[in-house]
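In line with agreed milestones, the collection of sequences with tokenised folds has grown. One record among many is set out beneath this paragraph:
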Amino acid sequence: MRRRLMAATAAAFLALGTLAVAQGRLASPAGTAATEIGGKYVTGPEEPIYQGGKWIEVRYSRPIKRGRDLFGSGADYGKALNAGAPVWRAGANVTTRLKTELPLVIGDKTVRPGEYSLFIDLKPSTWTFIVSSWPAQTRFDPSNKQALWGSFDYTPAKDVVRMPMQLDTLPFSVDQLSWEFIDMSAAGGRLAIMWDKMMASVPFKVGT
């Protein structure tokens, strides 16, 4: 039953995407948040050039609020966004992905350079940030058990980091979901997700 629901949900997402493309606009377009740190400016032929930096990037899909009660309340908190999955994909459609060219220390865990999937476990007043080594499907394939579509069939077996997020109420409403790097320095910063009037973030440091 759950498999049929998952397949039907994925098919609905793909159908909506196809309709949106036909209309010339994606319902949840691709988004990227990126930062480059660890380099330095050197003299260039016309202007200073930043060299030696390493990239950290999050790739995700950007759903629009469209008047919805996004998070719900009580026993139903987060269920609409999870769409039957055990955790939230922290975006839409494909799995949200983190790519880092340098080690990141999140909490007491080190995330080595590479590519990872990002999820959020939504609970009232408590969001848990998850970095996972689960690979991601680029197109929905129900026969592929080695990679995830969104967060369907997620298990914690491949978790690299689980960390409570800091939750803040924004003084404005963000209509289209956004991941951002904030409070950045050469030593690290915070990775934040913003949607509606919620901002959830986790601090990280540059590792060795």
